[in-house]
Structure formats: C-alpha cells, structure tokens
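Sharing a chain and its predicted structure for anyone who wants a worked example. Both blocks are below, sequence first, tokens second.
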Amino acid sequence: MIGRIAGRIEYKNTDHVLIDVRGVGYVIYVSDRVMASLPNPGEAVALFTDLLVREDLLQLFGFPTLVEKEWFRLLMSVQGVGAKASLAILGTLGPDGVSRAIALGDWNAVKAAKGIGPKTAQRVVNELKDKAPAVMAMGGAASVATEASEDDAVIEPVAAAPRPKPAPKPNASAQAEALSALGNLGYAPGEAASAVAEAAGDAPDADTPALIRAALKLLAPKG
C-alpha cells in the first residue's frame, strides 16, 4: 500500500498531478479544492494517498491531511458513492464541511457537490452519522496541543489506613479533542464546552468519538 508520496510536481492537469519521486512519476488524482492549494510545477509537495485497486485499473488519490484521506475512505463506504463522488463531496465542502453536514444532518450541503443527487446525499448523512465521530476526533486531535497529564505526588504516612479509590477522572485529552472537533463544526465555545463537560460527567471513561457523539446529541435541536 502506498500511503504517502513526497516529490516534485512535474505537471498539473484538471483532476490529477504527476509527482516525480527520484525519477519515478506517480499520477495522483485530487479534488478541485486540493488542486487549487498545490504549488506550481517544479516545486516540492507531499500528499497522503489512497490506492484504489480494480481488475483493470490502479489509481492513486491524494490528500493534504490524514483526516481528509479518512473522510474519502469513509464516504466510499456508502452505497452508490465511488471515488469520483467522494472527491466531489470533499472538493465542495472540505473535511470540516463534511463533518458539519453529517453532524447536523444537512444533506442539502452534501447535495451541492457535483453529481450528487438528493437520495445519495441523504444516504451519506444517514449511513455515516454514527461512524463520523471517529474521523472528527482525528481532526480534533491534530489541532490540540499535548497536555501534561501527571498527577501531583501524594506522600502517605507509614501504616496509614487504606484510602478509598478516587472517583474516575474525566479523560482530559479526550475532552480537549472533542471540544476542538465541535469548534471545527461551528459550535460556539461556550455551548460546546458545556455539552462536552456534561457528556464527560455522564461517562468519565469515554474516549473522544464517544464524547463527540454524546455532545452532539445534547446539542441537537430539541423538538
């Protein structure tokens, strides 16, 4: 599996680029959004890649981040959504836009992508609403700085009576990543923090995807 390619751009076409890696040229297909962000021919570039294997075809697809690559693979898991449609959705919305559309159930946003009809857009939202938090968490983790997690040392007297086990502490790292992911979806810091705190209070050991799912339920419009 070819997971990442770094080299020099030889040329750019409408939907793909040719990247030279030590004398070997790789044709990599990208979305319109990614194409617009790539440097000019002759300049260095690095892309995460996904290899699509068919009986009569091998195609590489390129992405600037691992999060976008994972969205591409997740979108392709939806019935009726192939590589071209996945790139169209990502090209129109970007990874954050896809996260937002699925979290809010906004299939009209997905339908705005070229070649995506209403039934396919609804299928994308419905099939991915429970799977999306795991990818959204990747985005949150990438944008959150590493935090110190060491507790203060406790000196106990000799022959002290056994102390009761402390209540489990909410996972600070998971909360920070969930909060960042919700911020990327457009939620205000205050409401996002409140929802994450409530979700973490209900399930102190929850990981990041579970916190995101719980917080999104709390933030969903009532009625």
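Comments welcome. Residues 143-169 have pLDDT under 50 and may be disordered.
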